[in-house]
Amino acid sequence: MARKSLIQRERKRQKLEQKYHLIRRSSKKEISKVPSLSDKWEIHGKLQSSPRNSAPTRLHRRCFLTGRPGANYRYFGLSGHILHEMVHACLLPGATRSSW
Question: Where are its TM segments located (predicted)?
Answer without folding.
Answer: none
